[in-house]
Design brief:
single chain; alpha+beta; 3-stranded antiparallel sheet; 18% strand
């Protein structure tokens, strides 16, 4: 029994040292403000320190190595917490502006609504607008899932529809620098801040379907008008807060899915923890199980009906884009929540 306990304790120590070594080495590699060779050297030194510590523990000569390892980790951790997300930078044009909004009575005014005309990922006409919306005419909430590399991971967008046919889509994204690219690993290590984008659907959905060729799926959210309004107001409040206080994007903890979950919880909604909140390609199934989507049809039917890429390509980035991608939609669930 004692031998088994000793073995388990050693295994736990090895795992902790391994995880701390890996995290610290990657943090130094991605974020240390030094030239590449120096970053590589410091990352390699910390990894070597971790290996030395593990070997020393195995040989029962652990006191000095673990002490050095603990001090080194404390230094890295102290440095890590000094890293603050930048408020200004040479951002990629599509995420250059953080949307903000004001609400006066039933009138919502958004500053910085994106309405780009995309010809390719690098060829586009920039256009940022100030738009007003009548919250009394808010009629629908839609969930978009955009898949670019298989079914496991996707990008989630939420769009609000009004009785006059207008829609405004919201997307929580990485605020990349000009020429930068999305990296799930790098964005675990404070590489880029967060940005909330509000945009016309022909822009933010069109670029994904028409230009990038992603598989975009559309689902109607089962929600009462007042709840829809509360959710939209929460988006606006979150965007305003982000404009005042930048926040890091994190591929696991603060991303397009988890940010929306935080908003729903703020509204008093219950969001049970589930692995599909992190492997978010299966988020529609999660939403279906929670009654957020229509449960009158099997989920497999909703999935089959949800694909809109071909409709989007046929419509092009035209004024009737939002109507076209919703045309012939069989399932229009009643609002009951």
């Amino acid at each position: 029994m004692r031998r088994a306990f000793h073995f388990l304790a050693l295994t736990g120590v090895f795992i902790v040292i391994l995880l701390v070594s890996a995290w610290s080495s990657l943090a130094l590699w991605y974020r240390l403000p030094l030239p590449l060779p120096a970053r590589a050297m410091f990352a390699a030194l910390f990894a070597a320190l971790g290996v030395w510590t593990i070997v020393s523990v195995i040989r029962h000569r652990w006191r000095a190595p673990t002490g050095v390892f603990s001090v080194a980790f404390a230094i890295v951790l102290s440095w890590w917490f000094t890293l603050a997300p930048p408020a200004v930078g040479d951002w990629s044009p599509d995420v250059a502006r953080q949307v903000t909004g004001t609400i006066s009575g039933d009138t919502l005014t958004l500053n910085g609504v994106r309405d780009f005309t995309w010809r390719s990922d690098t060829d586009y006409t920039e256009n940022w607008k100030t738009k007003t919306y009548d919250l009394k005419t808010l009629t629908s909430v839609d969930l978009f899932m955009s898949y670019w590399s298989g079914p496991l991971m996707g990008h989630m967008l939420v769009s609000f529809g009004f009785s006059n046919g207008e829609h405004v889509a919201w997307s929580v994204e990485v605020r990349r620098k000009r020429g930068g690219a999305f990296s799930p690993i790098a964005d675990l290590f404070k590489s880029n801040p967060l940005v909330i984008v509000a945009a016309e659907e022909r822009d933010i959905i069109g670029v994904r379907t028409i230009v990038r060729g992603e598989d975009v799926q559309l689902y109607r959210v089962n929600v009462l008008p007042q709840t829809a309004r509360n959710l939209l107001v929460a988006y606006v409040e979150d965007a305003n807060k982000l404009s005042r206080q930048p926040q890091w994007y994190n591929s696991l903890m603060t991303n397009c899915t988890t940010a929306v979950v935080a908003i729903v919880r703020t509204l008093g909604g219950t969001v049970p923890l589930d692995w599909r909140l992190y492997v978010n390609g299966y988020l529609p199934e999660y939403a279906y199980d929670q009654g957020i989507l229509d449960t009158g049809s099997p989920m497999a039917v909703l999935r089959k009906q949800s694909h809109i890429a071909e409709k989007a390509k046929a419509a092009g980035m035209s004024e009737d884009f939002s109507e076209a991608i919703r045309r012939d939609r069989v399932t229009e669930p009643p609002a009951t929540n």
